[in-house]
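Methods — Computational structure assignment.
A single polypeptide chain was analysed. Its primary sequence is given first, followed by the predicted tertiary structure written as structure tokens.
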Amino acid sequence: MTSFQERFCPAKINLFLEVLGKREDGTHEIATIMVPLDVGDRLLVRKSRSLRLEVVPPHAAPVRGNTVLRAFEALRSRTKLRGGAHFVLRKKIPPGSGLGAGSSDAAAALLALHALYDLRVPPEILRLAAQDVGSDVPFFLQNGPALVTGRGERVLPLPARSALHFAILLPRLPLETRAVYGFLASRSLPRPPADVSAFLRIWTRPGVAALIPRLYNALEPAASALAPALPRLRSAVHALGMPCRMSGSGSSHFVLFPSRNEAERRARVLRRSLGIRTRAASSLA
């Protein structure tokens, strides 16, 4: 029996996220800056005559409708992929946390199948298959920070900069992305959009002092309405002298620090003070 190939599925954080409006296809036009992290899931895959997915631990994510299986079907519909695959998904990032784990798992599946079956298709085919699965999946086909626009299909890699370090808070409050965007669309009032170009102008400045005041997430009010514990969580973190922001559609939040050591130390402080799961992470180049 052939051995498994292993892929790392990095989580992500949205440093900036603006929702610019609803598109005719029902999705939303966004402008977001995302960075991949050095924490995430692991995906093992090998050739098989059938299609099979195991999730470890078993209840960490659903198998039915899993993005890994959807990625397989999307790639098969766009290529000459014949045969099946046996996947083992080792989950570390909880679903509904806004850290992009499901999208990252799907991108890892696409890249693994492309290599495993030596498909030799152009990057555009992988990108289209990624779009078929979900809005964040194209971002994870590349290995660094990016400005993501459209509904998530347009990915512009950003210039290299020093690593960013985070203390991540993981409340046990999973949120459905569709529900958060749906609430935003039904309740939000017209307002001038936040300008991502202002964030981009300071992207390569040394340190994090210039970035912290510009961290932004337009989905925070909608997520907070659906999960009232979230604004209380932010207030508690702010009271400890740490400004925090939500990632993606929530419910995870993060605090940005200048060093990994400080991120790890403050993550321990937050865990003890708030009684919440935390972990330190750093951005990937």
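Note: The longest strand covers residues 28-48.
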